[in-house]
Design brief:
With about 270 residues, the protein is an alpha/beta fold. It has eight helices and seven strands; from the N terminus they run βαβαβαβαβαβαααβ. A seven-stranded parallel sheet has the order 3-2-1-4-5-6-7, sandwiched between helices.
Length: about 270
């Protein structure tokens, strides 16, 4: 924590604890790096058994190794969330090794780099929708039947501030992430009577390794100062929101999109 009371507060890596999460099973797609890895570790810190899912086996192994070294329970599974057969294998692997899934966190995605719409191609448009929207649908489709059968489950999807207001990302990314919001809201209404809650989180600028690799420190500070709360978001901010939505503390919340945006998005 900073000693300057006027300075903006940043996440310090600590998360609230939710005792009701203990013993549950979670799947985190996009879980090998950045926001996903931080969220996976936060769930494990609440005694959740986690399947860390990604496409880079070395990154998956590193995240899982760290969790196991701290006494947590985790498995790593390499899967492309746009491929139905790989998701079917993922579902079976998790069921065999950890049990039925209580919490599904669909954070896989990307392709948010700026592309002028007059330079957009059909190929790139379809690729972004496949990566960010279709992947969410296919992942949910893989695990939804078991949740319906058990009459319980929590699904947390990933949108973006780009879906909430005009931004510098591509139109394809804005459309895909807007689709995630609509899809999540539809799921929440359709399956509420089945005991399944569905909520969406929409982060704005999160200072992760990817951002640090292509945005200089001076520019990051300037960007953070433009937010009402005076700083960039941290992966811990997203993880904390995810824990809340996964827990019984949010048991009367479904169909909501939660903006993790430092006051930039106020709807």
């Amino acid at each position: 924590m900073t000693s300057d009371p006027a300075a903006p507060l940043a996440g310090d890596g600590r998360q609230d604890t939710y005792p009701d999460l203990e013993g549950k099973v979670a799947v985190v797609t996009g879980g090998s790096r950045g926001i996903g890895a931080t969220t996976a570790r936060a769930l494990v810190d609440n005694f959740v058994a986690v399947a860390v899912v990604g496409r880079d086996q070395s990154a998956i192994d590193a995240t899982v190794k760290g969790i196991l070294a701290e006494g947590g329970t985790a498995i790593g599974v390499a899967a492309d969330c746009t491929v139905e057969s790989e998701l079917a294998s993922l579902r079976q692997k998790v069921a065999d090794d950890l049990g039925p899934v209580d919490i599904l966190v669909t954070f896989a995605g990307g392709n948010g780099m700026p592309v002028p719409t007059d330079a957009e191609t059909g190929e790139h448009w379809r690729q972004v929708l496949e990566t960010d929207l279709t992947s969410t649908f296919l992942t949910v489709s893989a695990f939804l039947p078991t949740m319906i059968a058990r009459h319980s489950g929590v699904i947390i999807t990933m949108s973006s501030a780009a879906a909430r207001q005009a931004a510098k990302s591509s139109a394809a990314y804005a459309a895909a992430k807007s689709g995630v919001i609509g899809f999540s809201r539809h799921l929440a209404g359709e399956f509420a009577n089945d005991g399944i809650r569905v909520n969406c989180i929409a982060p704005s600028a999160i200072e992760n390794d990817h951002m640090r690799s292509w945005v200089p420190e001076k520019q990051r500070k300037q960007l953070g100062a433009a937010f009402p709360l005076g700083r960039l978001g941290q992966p811990d901010d997203v993880a904390a929101a995810t824990l809340f939505l996964a827990s019984s503390a949010s048991s009367w919340i479904t169909g909501v999109t939660l903006d993790i945006a430092g006051g930039k998005i106020m709807l």
